[in-house]
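Hi, here's the filled form for the chain we discussed.

Project: internal
Contact: R.S.
Residues: 193
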Amino acid sequence: MAGHFEATPGGAAVALDEVEIAILRSLAVQLLELIGPGDEPAEGEDPLAALFAEGPSEPPADPALARLFPEAYGDGDDELRAASAEFRRFTENDLRTRKREDALAVVRTLDALTPAGDEAAVLTLNAEECRNWLGSLNDLRLTIGTRLEVTDEDDGEEGSLYRLPDSDPRKPMVMAYLWLGALQETLVETMMP
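And the returned structure, exactly as it came back:
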């Protein structure tokens, strides 16, 4: 179980040591900061009004956010850009909320763990938590991959990510990127029928 998820009745489990827990928690918190706070209704404001609130119509300027909230219809002509803006206006707030909920679920499940010294703690997830974790692991990999400017050629075992020298300042983030990918892959495998 060390280093990868294994199926459990109704979910999945993985053994994590104190350092792994701290890294995952830190990355999830950073993702929450990147996504931004939710738009909670002000005190006395109609909570149903939030259902009809319109989101942004312009894509984010930050490349990582643009990767998390991509254009629905690409960067085509004016008609496609207008359709993308309309789609974003009505979907991005909900998508941001879901991404926040996923990252918060990761933080909460990690906070509930108590490793004992050098012993790894076993994180056990139910089906809903597996879905949250899968979404958050995906978002973390997309964000880190964007920051590292990962291409399809970089992502394979023969890719340049595996050949970075230890002195390269990107090496720790590359290692996190690859580790998150392995976690994501094993979690997907546990969720398959």
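Let me know if anything looks off before we file it.
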